UniProtKB/TrEMBL annotation:
Name of protein: DUF3329 domain-containing protein
Keywords: Membrane, Transmembrane, Transmembrane helix
Tree of life domain: Bacteria
Source organism (scientific name): Rhizobium chutanense
Transmembrane segments: 14-33, 39-58
Region annotated Disordered, chain positions: 64-92
UniProt key word Transmembrane helix: yes
Protein backbone atom coordinates (compact mmCIF):
# COMPACT_ATOMS: atom_id res chain seq x y z
CA UNK A 1 0.00 0.00 0.00
CA UNK A 2 1.49 3.31 -1.08
CA UNK A 3 0.58 6.24 1.16
CA UNK A 4 2.90 8.80 -0.45
CA UNK A 5 3.11 9.14 -4.22
CA UNK A 6 6.69 10.32 -4.83
CA UNK A 7 5.82 11.26 -8.44
CA UNK A 8 3.34 13.92 -7.32
CA UNK A 9 4.49 17.41 -8.38
CA UNK A 10 4.24 18.68 -4.79
CA UNK A 11 7.27 16.57 -3.80
CA UNK A 12 9.51 17.81 -6.62
CA UNK A 13 11.15 20.50 -4.47
CA UNK A 14 13.82 19.32 -2.05
CA UNK A 15 12.79 21.66 0.76
CA UNK A 16 9.27 20.21 0.81
CA UNK A 17 10.59 16.67 1.21
CA UNK A 18 13.02 17.74 3.93
CA UNK A 19 10.26 19.61 5.79
CA UNK A 20 7.91 16.62 5.78
CA UNK A 21 10.54 14.29 7.19
CA UNK A 22 11.78 16.85 9.73
CA UNK A 23 8.26 17.55 11.03
CA UNK A 24 7.56 13.85 11.50
CA UNK A 25 10.81 13.20 13.39
CA UNK A 26 10.45 16.47 15.30
CA UNK A 27 6.99 15.48 16.45
CA UNK A 28 8.35 12.10 17.53
CA UNK A 29 10.89 13.97 19.65
CA UNK A 30 8.17 16.11 21.21
CA UNK A 31 6.18 13.01 22.09
CA UNK A 32 9.24 11.39 23.68
CA UNK A 33 9.96 14.50 25.76
CA UNK A 34 6.36 14.70 26.99
CA UNK A 35 6.36 11.03 27.94
CA UNK A 36 4.14 9.43 25.28
CA UNK A 37 6.24 6.65 23.74
CA UNK A 38 3.30 5.19 21.78
CA UNK A 39 2.74 8.39 19.81
CA UNK A 40 6.50 8.87 19.48
CA UNK A 41 6.79 5.48 17.80
CA UNK A 42 3.91 6.31 15.45
CA UNK A 43 5.36 9.69 14.50
CA UNK A 44 8.82 8.17 14.14
CA UNK A 45 7.39 5.47 11.90
CA UNK A 46 5.73 8.12 9.76
CA UNK A 47 9.06 9.92 9.55
CA UNK A 48 10.89 6.73 8.58
CA UNK A 49 8.27 5.90 5.94
CA UNK A 50 8.31 9.42 4.51
CA UNK A 51 12.14 9.35 4.40
CA UNK A 52 12.05 6.03 2.58
CA UNK A 53 9.47 7.20 0.03
CA UNK A 54 10.70 10.78 -0.49
CA UNK A 55 14.47 10.19 -0.48
CA UNK A 56 15.38 6.54 -0.82
CA UNK A 57 12.98 5.57 -3.66
CA UNK A 58 12.48 9.07 -5.09
CA UNK A 59 13.31 9.32 -8.80
CA UNK A 60 12.83 12.89 -10.01
CA UNK A 61 10.91 13.22 -13.23
CA UNK A 62 12.21 15.73 -15.76
CA UNK A 63 10.00 18.75 -16.08
CA UNK A 64 7.84 18.52 -19.15
CA UNK A 65 7.55 21.74 -21.09
CA UNK A 66 4.00 22.61 -21.99
CA UNK A 67 3.31 22.49 -25.71
CA UNK A 68 2.92 25.91 -27.31
CA UNK A 69 -0.63 27.08 -27.37
CA UNK A 70 -2.18 26.96 -30.80
CA UNK A 71 -5.04 29.05 -32.07
CA UNK A 72 -8.47 28.06 -30.92
CA UNK A 73 -10.64 26.16 -33.34
CA UNK A 74 -13.37 28.73 -32.95
CA UNK A 75 -11.05 31.53 -34.06
CA UNK A 76 -10.01 29.64 -37.21
CA UNK A 77 -13.54 29.32 -38.47
CA UNK A 78 -14.77 32.39 -40.23
CA UNK A 79 -18.27 33.40 -39.51
CA UNK A 80 -20.42 32.80 -42.55
CA UNK A 81 -23.31 35.14 -42.96
CA UNK A 82 -26.48 33.19 -42.43
CA UNK A 83 -29.31 33.72 -44.82
CA UNK A 84 -32.08 35.51 -43.01
CA UNK A 85 -35.52 34.26 -43.86
CA UNK A 86 -37.91 36.91 -44.98
CA UNK A 87 -41.24 37.45 -43.38
CA UNK A 88 -42.89 35.08 -45.79
CA UNK A 89 -40.49 32.19 -44.82
CA UNK A 90 -38.21 32.20 -47.87
CA UNK A 91 -34.51 33.07 -47.74
CA UNK A 92 -33.43 36.30 -49.34
Amino acid sequence: MQLIDPNHPAYRRLWVRIAIVAVCFGWAGVELITGDPFWAVLAGGAGAYSFYMLFWTFKPQPEVAAPPAGPDVEEEQEETPQAKPSKDGQAE
